[in-house]
Amino acid sequence: MTTGPHPLDVVSPARIAELVDDVAIRKVHLGLVPVFALAVLAGAFIALGAAFYIVTVTGSDLGFGPTRLLGGFAFSLGLILVIVGGAELFTGNSLIVLARADQKVTTGQLLRNWAIVYVGNLTGALGTAMLVHLSGALSTEALAATVVGIAETKLALPAGETFFRGILCNVLVCLAVWMCFAAHSVSGKVLVIAFPIAAFVALGFEHSVANMFLLPMGMLESGVFDLSGAVRNLLVVTAGNVVGGGVLVALTYWLIYLSPHGAAKV
């Protein structure tokens, strides 16, 4: 176990690994109803962040890069609500792989959590898409064109590119969640969330839960429903998200800090 204050007066990476381990154990032991309800909230929160992104980038004359960056900061609202408000997000829960590697949770517990949270996220995102559509908030010509264009672009991506964009996305998302454990305040959590999320959005990476809102939203506004394309996109992005968060972040940090061969307590 790590002892004493970190020389930089933040929670050390080794201690973060221990905290992620502990939180993962608590997550897999939550009952069905609270896990599902929290997952529905997370789906809705990410959807609201995505809706905020659409409004932010529509009509911008700042240029491609600055517009995407500004939109990324707007989209970070979703993860801020998840972390500070409290919710269960599938992409963030890829970090439970760390506790599985540490043999603190079973494969069955891991998969149960992922299944419940994924369905809950989908429910929250779809419900929010329907509410936003009924509200007409994104139904003006310019806003509808933006969301339809986003959906069409995502559906047109080749599977290989989609998969690797999913990997890169969840590396950044899980690093944002990881760094939240080092923050001492709400403002600190907001700050460490904003930049990784803005980066993945600006770079055009793929987030499964965001797509649970953006694809249906585009279909609702266009009236063209490509369900098979949406399912295909979600499956590929989800696989990439699991690899990015579960392997490249969670498993890597387990190997460095918690495995018998690592134990780098720095």
List keywords for this structure.
266 residues; mainly alpha; Glycerol uptake facilitator protein; 76% helix
Structure, described:
With 266 residues, the protein is an all-alpha fold. It has one domain: Glycerol uptake facilitator protein. Helix content is 76%, strand content 0%. It has 11 helices and no strands. The chain has helices at 13-28, 32-57, 64-75, 77-86, 96-101, 107-135, 141-156, 159-180, 186-203, 208-222, 227-258. The longest helix has 32 residues, at 227-258. The model has no long low-confidence stretch (mean pLDDT 94).
Helical content class: over 70%
CATH class: Mainly Alpha
How many domains? The number is: 1
Q: Give the distance, in angstroms, between the N- and C-terminal Cα atoms.
A: 11 Å
Q: How do the SSEs run, as a string of H and E?
A: HHHHHHHHHHH
Number of helices: 11
Mean pLDDT: 94
Short summary:
The protein has about 270 residues and is mainly alpha-helical.
Topology of helices and strands:
Blueprint (H helix, E strand, L loop, with lengths): L12 H16 L3 H26 L6 H12 L1 H10 L9 H6 L5 H29 L5 H16 L2 H22 L5 H18 L4 H15 L4 H32 L8
Helix pairs in contact: 1-11, 2-3, 2-4, 2-6, 2-10, 3-9, 4-9, 6-10, 7-10, 8-9, 8-11, 10-11
